[in-house]
Write a structure and sequence with these properties.
With about 425 residues, the chain is α+β, with helices and mostly antiparallel strands. The chain has two domains: about 15-145, Sandwich (Immunoglobulin-like), CATH 2.60.40.3120; about 155-415, Aminopeptidase (3-Layer(aba) Sandwich). The protein is built from nine helices and 20 strands. Strands 13-14-16-15-17-20-18-19 form an eight-stranded mixed β-sheet, with helices on both faces. Strand 18, helix 7 (about 320-340) and strand 19 (about 350) form a beta-alpha-beta unit. Helix 4 (about 230-235) crosses helix 9 and helix 7 packs across helix 9. It is globular and about 70 Å long.
Length: about 425
Amino acid sequence: MERMKHILVTLLLVSLLPHFAQAAEVKARTDFEGGSATIESIDQATKTIRFTPGGDPARGWACWWYLRVDGVAKDETLTLDLGASNKPTRNDGKLTPNPLAASWAMPDRATFSTDEKTWSHTAPGKRVDKRILYTVTGNGGPLWIAWGPPFTPRDTDKLLDYAIEKSPDSDIFELATTREKRTIKGLHVHESRILNPPVIWVHARQHAWESGASWVARGFTEWLVSEDEDALWLRANAEIFLIPIMDVDNVATGNGGKEADPRDHNRDWAEQPVYPEVAAAQKRLLALAKENRLSLFLDLHNPAPNDRQPFFFVGPEENLTPQAKEYRTKFLAETVTHINGPLPVEKKTRTTGASYHPLVKQISGMWVTANGNPDTVAACLETSWNTPHSTTAGYRTVGKQLGQAVTAYLRQQKK
């Protein structure tokens, strides 16, 4: 009799397991590196999370969001109901009374992962009034959902460890310690045995929310340390510095970074920078220019929501020497040839002129043009974030293609 009771109790518990699984409470968290969101409400019956981007507007545009969700059963549909931040935003170096336009926070497709390693797009979101709804199907475990594929300081560490393992003549260097005591790390490739080789400087994420820029930097790095013929040639004929994240503090804390108070990293290239990492970059770049070795300076960003094709920002031609003008034209021609899909770069560049921003002379490319060699080429690559190809694979392909363009350009210089 006791055995029969035990069997019946076991069968009853087994029959109730699906009910218990379905009754799990959906929870959302942002207490991790890069996490950011303001949770408005969670409807347990419909599995719907209403939220807006998090972040402090004093630390940049409130458009980045990244959250972890637990309690979604296998094959169950989670709905993410996203609204824009209603906090006043900063622009052109000052606080405005208006919030940031919703489009900056609302990609056509959100990005999600079940393991924080592989990131995929959701189906296109459904716009309802001033909000957008994304859906994700659960697998029974945690879900990570974000504005775009996250890339945090932890990812920098992994990438740099991978790179120095693949390229023994490479080092991890520390550019600076931030105001919040984090370390800015980069890759220094010094395989070349040429006396005073030309230097390529590449950095990303002067605006923290622009996560795709770090994935482009990752693609460049992975290609650079590979056995690809062009990568081998570049390592043998140039010295390369690459920094995946410049604004580490805001990336780590889930803030937007752009237009931060008193200015963001890409408006801080002044005589007395606010950020130690900008000052440290200036010091290194000035030393390289003094040696007449600063060949290419490349600043990686993401653009506006409706920019569906990558493009380059460059400074006005009147600021260039005749040699720099010629070299820049040659370099940009190579980028059009090599960055050819799935995110092909536009042939036409855009100019960072006097009307672009009140602090235009303190933008990094402008500063490098004014302080580099007579033949230094400085350019900002803006890689589109709001397309079906704005994925980790798409971004990494752009990075690889950028590396191939750099190689083709330097090969010309060697002739």
